[in-house]
């Protein structure tokens, strides 16, 4: 039995600026650049949780709620919110820091799925997640539903097998 871990144990924080080469014509951070930063932080979190080679299986949800202007200091925080057998859901929160006050405001969030694999790329089992805070418990509880939605949209399960989703409509 592998030792379960808390989301805090996989927490990964990546702080970096927005430079001119990373912006769109409105001088805001280019979406693909933010996706890459989130993928890196989430990948490190999944690796810390599993201590394995991890690959991005899917990007389940990304909300670009707020533009991130040139020169901003951006913090990407990733934590494993739930582990299944070989896959892990990683929650990513993105914050921007005000230059004068130092205050952080939430800019974006995303949910990625990673799979732990062996040296030959075959999926391999990972430890469980033990959520601690209220938010971690909420994210943990809803993760199975999101997994089923992602598998359904990918055509990997049939609607009838998406039990958690069906329960939403009953
Ligand atoms: C991710 C990958 C290992 C999954 O392989 P697979 O043959 O689908 O393996 P399985 O069917 O055994 O699935 C493995 C796990 O991934 C989950 N999974 C697969 N596709 C998924 C999707 N679209 N959304 C959510 N979970 C997914 C499965 O549910 C399973 O989870 P579990 O073991 O925790 O129950 C494989 O598709 C791969 O190597 N992809 C390329 C990854 C990569 O290179 N990413 C970088 C981007 S280019």
Describe the structure.
The chain has 170 residues and is of the alpha+beta class. The protein is built from four helices and five strands; from the N terminus they run αβαββββαα. It has a five-stranded antiparallel beta sheet with strand order 1-3-4-5-2. The longest helix is centred in the N-terminal third of the chain and has 20 residues, at 31-50. It binds coenzyme A. Coenzyme A binds at residues 55-58, 84-87, 113, 115, 117, 121, 123, 147, 150-151, 154, 156.
Question: Quick recap of the structure?
Answer:
The chain has 170 residues and is of the alpha+beta class.
Give the SSE layout.
Layout: H1 7-10, E1 12-17, H2 31-50, E2 53-63, E3 73-83, E4 87-97, E5 104-117, H3 134-153, H4 163-169
Antiparallel strand pairs: 1-3, 2-5, 3-4, 4-5
The structure holds coenzyme A.
Coenzyme A is lined by residues 55-58, 84-87, 113, 115, 117, 121, 123, 147, 150-151, 154, 156.
């Amino acid at each position: 039995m592998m030792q379960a871990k808390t989301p805090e144990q996989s927490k990964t924080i990546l702080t970096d600026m927005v430079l001119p080469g990373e912006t769109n014509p409105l001088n805001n951070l280019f979406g693909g650049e933010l996706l890459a930063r989130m993928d890196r932080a989430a990948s490190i979190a999944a690796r810390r949780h599993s201590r394995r080679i991890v690959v991005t299986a899917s990007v389940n949800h990304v909300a670009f709620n707020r533009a991130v202007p040139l020169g901003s200091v951006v913090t990407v925080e990733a934590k494993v919110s739930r582990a299944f057998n070989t896959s892990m859901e990683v929650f990513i929160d993105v914050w921007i820091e005000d230059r004068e006050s130092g205050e952080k405001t939430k800019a974006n969030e995303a949910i990625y799925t990673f799979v732990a694999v062996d040296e030959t790329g075959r999926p391999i089992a990972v430890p469980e997640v033990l959520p601690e805070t209220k938010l971690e418990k909420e994210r943990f509880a809803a993760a199975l539903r999101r997994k089923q939605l992602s598998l359904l949209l990918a055509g990997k399960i049939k609607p009838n097998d998406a039990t958690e989703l069906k329960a939403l409509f009953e």
